[in-house]
Design brief:
alpha/beta; 6 helices; about 350 residues; 5-stranded parallel sheet
């Protein structure tokens, strides 16, 4: 009996090729796409293609057309309410709290690999596995009796950072057909399959019109140094993030950077470049993949944002869900709200959310 796979479609080249590869391998494939855009009139909406925005209508049409070409069922599932609660409200709340959220990290664990599958089951779609176009690899270790998450072959497109919050229960159903291919190979395969999406650009942002489009207006407040001296006025906390240099509106002899965002005092604290570096952080909401929650310090390479070059560090667990991460060398702009992910070679050991930096 053929194994049934539900493939998450986005209307782009990656998910389209993933679905095509699975059908070629003999799976019984169904395509699903999430409808998440609430219809808001977003500013600068034509600036670039994004996950959230009016471009969704085009994406749904492209995904439907690809599924018709592949002769597989297609379903568009309404997740607007779930997306607003789990992603948009979280996103706005984090910024207003002086943190810098990671919407893709949140969406994968709460929406794409959770709510979407629940909605698919409710809609009567039967499946054994769930596939996406993420560049990552998953495999089962008989030795560890666990599902392992690994980096993609194409390191420049590796997305293991964004899906490091997936649980063992979620990983056991996951398939990532593109994990062994490069992006160039995937675009060539799209042309061979004649899917018509091989030249479609990748999404550049999570939200059309800029990342502050749906955040409620935040009050202005002081920009100060570590000594409490008022140096200027900020436009609202959501406009700032740790390490930011441009747009501060402060004149100084040497460059100044955002070194702290104090939501309680509605204050943006700035300082010199050396003050943006830190060698430790406190992480919460930890998800351990390669093993059960360890009770000992681990040597890893840690990544504090997707574009960050992994750095040598020691993770000291405080509980199953909390740990201190101490870097061998100070890192630039460790930012509360972002994900920190631990690696050992290709293997994703685990990860969590940066709660704060410095001494705990």
């Amino acid at each position: 009996m053929l194994k049934k796979v539900v493939a998450a479609m986005s209307g782009g080249v990656d998910s389209s090729v993933a679905a095509a590869l699975l059908k070629d391998k003999g799976y019984q494939v169904s395509g699903v796409i999430m409808e998440i855009w609430g219809g808001e009139a977003l500013p600068e909406e034509g600036r670039r293609h994004a996950c959230y925005g009016p471009g969704e209508e085009e994406d749904v049409a492209d995904a439907r057309r690809v599924c018709q070409m592949l002769d597989i069922p297609f379903y568009a599932l309404d997740l607007r309410d779930e997306y607003r609660t789990e992603v948009l409200d979280y996103y706005s709340g984090e910024y207003l709290s002086g943190r810098t959220p990671n919407p893709c990290y949140r969406c994968n664990s709460r929406i794409k690999f959770d709510a979407l599958l629940g909605k698919a089951r409710q809609s009567g779609i039967e499946f054994d596995y769930f596939a996406t176009g993420h560049y990552a690899r998953v495999e089962y270790s008989e030795e560890k009796q666990r599902y392992l998450l690994k980096k993609a072959v194409d390191r420049s497109k590796d997305q293991s950072y964004f899906i490091s919050s997936l649980s063992q229960q979620q990983l056991q159903y996951c398939m990532f057909p593109l994990g062994d291919y490069t992006k160039e190979e995937v675009r060539k395969m799209a042309a061979v399959y004649r899917l018509g999406v091989e030249d479609k650009p990748d999404s550049q942002d999570f939200m059309a019109g800029g990342h502050l489009s749906l955040i409620e207006t935040a009050p202005a407040g002081p920009i100060a140094d570590r000594m409490g001296n008022i140096l200027g006025e900020h436009r609202g906390l959501p406009h700032y993030t740790i390490g930011q240099r441009k747009g501060l509106g402060v004149t100084a002899e040497a460059p100044r950077y955002v070194v702290e965002i104090d939501a309680e005092k509605n204050t943006v604290v700035i300082g010199g470049r050396d003050e943006v570096y830190n060698d430790r952080l406190f992480a919460v909401g930890l998800n351990w993949i390669a093993e059960e929650a360890p009770n000992r310090p681990l040597r890893v390479k840690a990544r504090i944002r997707h574009s960050h070059r992994e750095a040598d560090a020691t993770v000291t667990p405080l509980s199953e869900s909390e740990a201190i991460v101490k870097f061998d060398r100070p890192q630039l702009a460790i930012t509360p709200g972002q994900a920190v992910v631990f690696y050992q070679g290709d293997l994703v050991v685990g990860g969590g959310t940066i709660e704060k930096t410095g001494e705990i």
